[in-house]
């Protein structure tokens, strides 16, 4: 790095010498004067030299009374300041690019997290909608079952009442006709069968009533 800087500064000095001799500085004649050095470094030095030439000439015109060593010292100081400023600019540019990359990475991470959270929420919402549809279907089935149980309960109640009515009619018929023992036995058997049927219907009715109440509570 030191050799590169030395070639750069010597190339600028040689360019000044050539210009003072009335010769246009080029990569070739500067390198010939130097005797060595990278053409890339010499070319960069000549670019810097051309960029600062107008300003140096203007300073000389504005301060012609200044000795040449003072002007050269001022030029070197100015060139060092420019080099330092360029170096600081490059450092800050690199830092800004690194910061920008970090911000972009953080932004991408937040966007990924947001997209993941959104996807999870959408999936959960889809599951909830599916569950709501299932519950709605179950509710519909329960309501249908309740209606069926209520209809069955009404039908069984009517059958029970009809059976009880027939038993009472048979008992009255037996009392009025003075039936013999055989007829009374048959009547009692029929009455017993009707009573058992009534009891069966009553138990079934109670079971349906309890199932109906449970289903309504589940709604």
TrEMBL record:
Coiled-coil boundaries: 82-159, 184-218
Gene Ontology MF term list: DNA binding
Organism listed in the record: Marinobacterium weihaiense
Record-annotated KfrA N-terminal DNA-binding domain positions: 10-111
One matching Pfam family: KfrA_N
This protein's UniProt keywords: Coiled coil, DNA-binding
Protein name as catalogued: DNA-binding protein
InterPro entries with a match to the protein in the record: KfrA_DNA-bd_N
């Amino acid at each position: 790095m030191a050799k590169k800087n030395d070639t750069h500064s010597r190339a600028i000095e040689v360019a000044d010498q050539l210009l003072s001799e009335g010769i246009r500085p080029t990569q070739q004649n500067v390198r010939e004067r130097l005797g060595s050095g990278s053409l890339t470094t010499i070319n960069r030095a000549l670019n810097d030299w051309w960029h600062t030439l107008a300003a140096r000439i203007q300073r000389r015109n504005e301060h012609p009374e200044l000795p040449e060593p003072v002007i050269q010292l001022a030029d070197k100081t100015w060139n060092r300041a420019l080099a330092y400023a360029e170096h600081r600019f490059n450092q800050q540019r690199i830092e800004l690019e690194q910061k920008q990359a970090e911000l972009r990475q953080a932004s991408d991470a937040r966007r990924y997290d947001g997209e993941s959270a959104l996807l999870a929420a959408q999936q959960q919402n889809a599951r909830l909608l599916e569950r709501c549809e299932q519950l709605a279907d179950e509710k519909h089935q329960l309501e249908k079952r309740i209606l069926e149980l209520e209809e069955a309960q009404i039908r069984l109640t009517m059958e029970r009442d009809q059976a009880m009515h027939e038993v009472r009619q048979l008992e009255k018929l037996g009392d009025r006709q003075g039936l013999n023992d055989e007829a009374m036995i048959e009547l009692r058997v029929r009455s017993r069968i009707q009573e058992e049927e009534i009891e069966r219907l009553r138990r079934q009715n109670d079971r349906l009533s309890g199932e109906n109440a449970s289903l309504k509570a589940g709604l």
